[in-house]
């Protein structure tokens, strides 16, 4: 009986379950790239082999137990046999189930990535495993499911209190039946769009966006907005008016506009505030406003924008227009670009209109769209009081009036703390600020960028440099 007791008290699955949770968590949380994910998969494959060995051992123990139960003096053979057979059959079924689940998420061939102009493969591109049946319970393992317009509307009612809750979009949602959508209240949970789309979002309100605010700790990822028609009086954006959290792998197409004096527009987000992050995202939307409007974000304050781009046109009636961001106060823009045309009166830039803080950093980024303004405009930045590093502009800069008023190949106006480090703009006539000037041929000559990080940039003779993160 002593041996049988030892077998019964041992739990070979305990450490295996802990390891499984570790590896699955590692895949979910890892955002350091495909290389590390592949290394994790190799570890998981090794672990699967160990699990198979454990399964064989359990089967052997079951056989041995069935032959040894007869020696027990205190229990009948039938009682012990029934006990041990049930115990081991339960363990064998459970471990088989866990092996099957682990194999389904460990196989690289089962990965599915979205069809998207944005080319980066990240952990967010992986499709989720099979979800439990039912509407969900709001946990990470069993998120609330959003499949219909009515489900989406629950975010203002039964799911309005969503801090720490998880949601997943399981079907594309067409909002064309709603002529003027009312923005959803503040969101503080985690919403995985599952590479699904919000279609035909139409809003015409004072502040217009899907969410009024993404709170600190809130996450919205893997969600597309297609064919939006968003009009704001004071502010407009597709996803959120205020972002204090994280926006990851989201995009917008269509049109975003704002009509009132001093009204702002941003393709995806209106204001991205301290500590917030926007990454792996893009906008092809046409963006227009009266004042400070940007292709992806209108105004960012001590926020981060990385691995993102905008290709739609941006225009303002008054001042402040940027191909990617209109106004930047602190924070960082890295490995991002803009290609759309940008126009306004003053403070107009191909990438950013106004960089008004010495702690602001633009690095490893570029713009290629045309810029037109009355003055204080530049190929990359309109007015610079921060730092530009390892970046360039290849677009034209044109004055809307006969005289040239603070137009620059890279930046139109430099504050006392404006700094350029190994950054360049295309030389052209009709500009007053030639700082960082290079000819078109020099911008296509690898020697111009000899000190740039070749892990970040693809630099070829006869071509403008490109960011590798956006290439296949």
UniProtKB/TrEMBL annotation:
A matching Pfam family: Glug
GLUG domain span: 347-372
Membrane-traversing stretches: none
SUPFAM superfamilies assigned to the protein according to its UniProt record, in alphabetical order: Pectin lyase-like (SSF51126)
Entries under InterPro entries matching the protein: GLUG, Pectin_lyase_fold/virulence
Signal peptide range in chain numbering: none
Protein name according to UniProt: GLUG domain-containing protein
Origin species: Porites evermanni
């Amino acid at each position: 009986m002593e041996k049988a007791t030892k077998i019964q008290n041992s739990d070979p699955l305990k450490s295996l379950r802990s390891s499984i949770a570790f590896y699955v968590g590692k895949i979910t949380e890892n955002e350091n790239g495909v290389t590390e994910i592949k290394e994790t998969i190799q570890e998981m494959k090794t672990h699967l082999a160990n699990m198979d060995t454990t399964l064989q051992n359990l089967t052997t123990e079951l056989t041995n137990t069935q032959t040894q139960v007869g020696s027990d003096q205190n229990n009948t053979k039938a009682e012990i046999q029934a006990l041990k057979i049930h115990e081991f059959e339960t363990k064998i079924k459970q471990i088989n189930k866990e092996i099957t689940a682990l194999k389904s998420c460990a196989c690289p061939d089962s990965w599915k990535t979205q069809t998207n102009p944005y080319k980066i493969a990240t952990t967010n591109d992986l499709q989720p495993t099979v979800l439990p049946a039912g509407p969900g319970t709001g946990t990470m393992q069993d998120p609330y499911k959003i499949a219909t317009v009515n489900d989406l509307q629950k975010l203002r009612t039964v799911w309005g209190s969503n801090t720490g809750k998880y949601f997943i979009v399981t079907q594309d949602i067409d909002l064309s039946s709603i002529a003027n959508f009312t923005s959803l209240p503040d969101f503080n949970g985690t919403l995985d769009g599952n590479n699904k789309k919000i279609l035909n979002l139409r809003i015409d309100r004072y502040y217009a966006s899907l969410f009024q605010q993404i709170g600190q700790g809130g996450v919205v990822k893997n969600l597309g907005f297609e064919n939006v028609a968003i009009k704001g009086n004071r502010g407009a954006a597709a996803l959120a008016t205020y972002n204090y959290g994280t926006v990851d792998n989201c995009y917008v197409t269509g049109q975003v506009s704002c009509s009132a004096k001093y009204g702002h527009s941003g393709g995806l987000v209106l204001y991205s505030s301290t500590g917030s992050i926007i990454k792996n995202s893009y906008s092809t939307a046409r963006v227009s406003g009266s004042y400070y409007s940007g292709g992806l974000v209108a105004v960012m304050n001590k926020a981060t924008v990385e691995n993102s781009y905008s290709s739609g046109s941006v225009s303002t009636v008054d001042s402040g227009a940027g191909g990617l961001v209109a106004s930047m106060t602190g924070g960082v823009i890295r490995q991002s670009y803009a290609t759309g045309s940008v126009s306004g009166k003053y403070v107009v830039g191909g990438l950013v209109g106004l960089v008004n803080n010495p702690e602001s950093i633009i690095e490893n980024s570029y713009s290629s769209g045309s810029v037109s303004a009355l003055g204080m405009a530049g190929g990359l930045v309109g007015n610079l009081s921060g730092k530009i590093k390892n970046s360039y502009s290849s677009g034209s800069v044109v004055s809307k009036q006969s005289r040239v008023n603070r137009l620059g190949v890279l930046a139109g106006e430099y504050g006392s703390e404006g700094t350029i480090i190994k950054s360049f703009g295309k030389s052209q006539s009709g500009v007053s600020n030639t700082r960082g000037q290079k000819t078109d041929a020099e911008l296509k000559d690898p020697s111009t960028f000899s000190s740039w990080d070749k892990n970040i940039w693809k630099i070829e003779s006869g071509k403008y440099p490109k960011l590798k993160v956006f290439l296949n």
